[in-house]
């Protein structure tokens, strides 16, 4: 009888129905993911879709995307939240925010995160990793990345007697082409030859010119700048001469945000802007257009640009592991290829360009590969300690010259003096 009773008790204890109350369903790991949206609604739909797809594949993880406005708004919000003890666990922020995030001690390096193997981190284009690593550690994973490219109106080229399949290859041709493309009626200009925007991200567009003039604006450690180098002033003189001397670009400040619209409305025949505008141009240009690498000065060149994925120290061990899974999900070759097709941003790994869908897309739309092909000529975007202050010093000098209030050499010397004052404390 005793044996029977013990057997019965054992059976009851083993019953899953009776054992269930003692088992608690594990709560899903929650990740707040801050994402910069300054380019319109379609991006949010894509990111929402990725989050939903990831959750279906990983039922124990929940991703909450929070759209935080411009890149500048996004870094400000992230740092404010971190200081207040309410940081996101993950964010897409500018690659150039790396030093700021490290100095503020709010992010963790990917090298320390479970599942972030070296082979994965080394799978991205080296040009994008220049703005992702410092001090022997990887702080950002390339995601929403870009370079600057030239877009041009093929109909305007034909009307000006230019070969629509042959964009300008160097600075001299760029001026010569722009002169032929500029159309005037009396004292008014109905079509400018070229526009290189000087609002929004003037330092970034300018860095393309300095790279082409074979000079770097900062060192790898982010504690020195070279704004006073004579080649920097030469590049700025070329930029200001487009309007002041050659009269092929509008004078004063050329707006970043309206330049694509000016291109669509045939107010400008050639423009420099991000490859992130490629899908926008493809959808809205009412004429055949070309996409080309930027013309060469002493060499070809463009800075890279755009956003990296960062993990904040606020993340728990479980959240850090989930963040790595999400980052690896976002950067899988097939998904990275589709992201590039949907947005115009550069798929960030060579493997993404080898996928069947990307090969098919490039075969039908060769312009999509221009930014990728320019990567061997690309350099890291301007990034230093106290980056926003240093960048402001350069932007102020650029805009003073472009509006005729200063000359290139003294303006760049003044910008360098301000940068030196800011960065001196970081030189050890």
TrEMBL record:
Which interval of the chain is the signal sequence?
Answer: 1-19
Q: Which domain of life is it from?
A: Bacteria
Q: Which Pfam family, any one of them, does this sequence belong to?
A: SBP_bac_8
Location of this chain's protein in the cell: Periplasm
UniProt keywords, alphabetically: Signal
> CDD domains, per this entry?
PBP2_UgpB (cd14748)
InterPro entries recorded for this chain? Bact_solute-bd_prot1, SBP
A GO term from the CC aspect: periplasmic space
Q: Please give the family membership noted in the entry.
A: Belongs to the bacterial solute-binding protein 1 family.
What name does the UniProt record give this protein? ABC transporter substrate-binding protein
């Amino acid at each position: 009888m005793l044996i029977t009773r013990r057997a019965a008790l054992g059976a009851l204890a083993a019953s899953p129905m009776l054992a269930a109350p003692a088992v608690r369903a594990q709560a899903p790991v929650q990740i707040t993911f801050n994402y910069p949206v300054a380019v319109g609604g379609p991006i949010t739909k894509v990111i929402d879709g990725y989050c939903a797809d990831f959750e279906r594949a990983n039922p124990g993880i929940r991703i909450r995307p929070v759209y935080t406005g411009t890149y500048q708004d996004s870094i400000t919000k992230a740092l404010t939240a971190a200081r207040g003890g309410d940081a996101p666990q993950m964010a897409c922020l500018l690659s150039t925010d790396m030093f700021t995030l490290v100095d503020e001690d709010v992010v963790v390096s990917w090298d320390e995160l479970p599942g972030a193997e070296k082979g994965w981190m080394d799978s991205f284009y080296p040009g994008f990793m220049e703005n992702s690593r410092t001090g022997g550690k990887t702080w950002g994973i390339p995601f929403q990345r870009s370079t600057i490219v030239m877009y041009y109106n093929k109909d305007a080229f034909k009307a000006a007697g230019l070969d629509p399949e042959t964009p300008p290859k160097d600075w001299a041709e760029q001026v010569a082409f722009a002169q032929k493309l500029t159309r005037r009626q009396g004292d008014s200009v109905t079509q400018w030859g070229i526009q290189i925007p000087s609002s929004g991200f003037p330092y970034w567009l300018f860095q393309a010119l300095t790279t082409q003039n074979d000079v770097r604006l900062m060192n790898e450690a982010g504690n020195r700048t070279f704004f006073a180098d004579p080649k920097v002033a030469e590049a700025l003189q070329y930029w200001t001469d487009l309007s002041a001397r050659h009269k092929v670009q509008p004078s004063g400040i050329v707006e970043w945000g309206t330049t694509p619209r000016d291109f669509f409305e045939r107010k400008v025949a050639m423009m420099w802007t991000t490859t992130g505008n490629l899908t926008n141009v493809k959808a809205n240009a009412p004429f055949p257009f070309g996409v080309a690498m930027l013309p060469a000065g002493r060499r070809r060149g463009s800075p890279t640009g755009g956003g990296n994925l960062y993990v904040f120290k606020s993340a728990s061990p479980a959240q850090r592991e989930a963040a790595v899974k999400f980052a690896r999900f976002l950067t899988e070759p097939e998904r990275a290829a589709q992201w590039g097709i949907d947005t115009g941003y550069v798929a960030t790994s060579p493997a993404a360009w080898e996928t069947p869908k990307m090969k098919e897309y490039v075969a039908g739309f060769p312009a999509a590969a221009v930014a990728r092909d320019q990567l061997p000529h690309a350099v890291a975007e301007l990034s230093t300690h106290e980056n926003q202050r240093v960048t402001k010093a350069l932007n102020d000098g650029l805009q003073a010259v472009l509006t005729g209030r200063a000359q290139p050499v003294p303006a760049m010397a003044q910008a360098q003096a301000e940068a030196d004052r800011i960065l001196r404390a970081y030189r050890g």
